[in-house]
Design goal:
mainly alpha, 9 helices, 0% strand, binds fe (ii) ion, hydrolase, Hydrolase, hydrolase activity
Length: 195
């Protein structure tokens, strides 16, 4: 899987439709997580595709929240994205806002890690360190069970994602924490440059 879009073009495209720093932060974080997973799962030569799909996955959410994953194809195609990238982006809303099913492993990883990335990010912000570097799976599990914590992060979607991958939930949590550790510093640096 590959895309002609360069990483710079993809970031410009994200910024064209997203002005909220939180949305840019989320895109950059999911990009970093997807790059880690590509390498971890033996798809290192597709790292850019995995990363760019992660960067752009919520491209339509800020301006078109009612048409999430439905407006994305138009925005992506206007920006030069191919069908494969459009499919990857849209499939992360499977069962909620679209019937585009995650098929490729990359799409399943995006589906599974997007929502969990939000939960881990919210949990990290509660920590004195404000970081995932010192976060352990045990503390994430407590946050996962506490339904009032980051209530907007659907536990059902996270569980469904783990099932899709055939991984125990704990494995998805462990890996996604490691993935977020791998990119925390570079994401923060890039956010400082954007703001
Ligand atoms: Fe997302």
């Amino acid at each position: 899987m590959e895309t002609k879009l360069t990483r710079d073009e993809a970031l410009e495209l994200l910024k064209k439709y997203n002005k909220e720093p939180f949305h840019i932060l989320h895109g950059l974080t999911v990009e970093g997580v997807m790059r880690w997973y590509a390498k971890e799962l033996g798809y290192g030569e597709e790292e850019d595709f995995w990363g760019i799909a992660g960067l752009l996955h919520d491209i339509d959410f800020e301006m078109y929240p009612e048409e999430h994953c439905k407006k994305a194809p138009e925005l992506l195609e206007d920006g030069g994205a191919e069908a494969g990238l459009v499919h990857a982006v849209c499939s992360h809303g499977y069962g909620l806002v679209t019937d585009v099913k995650p098929e490729h492993l990359m799409e399943k990883v995006l589906f599974a890690s997007d929502e969990l990335t939000g939960l881990i990010g919210a949990a990290a912000r509660m920590r004195p360190s404000k970081s995932v570097m010192d976060m352990e799976v045990s503390s994430l599990k407590k946050k996962f069970k506490d339904k009032r914590f980051a209530a907007g992060c659907s536990r059902e979607v996270i569980k469904e994602g783990a099932d899709m991958l055939g991984w125990p939930l704990e494995e998805l949590m462990e890996k996604t924490i490691l993935a977020m550790r791998s990119c925390e510093e570079s994401v923060n640096r890039e956010m400082d440059m954007i703001e």
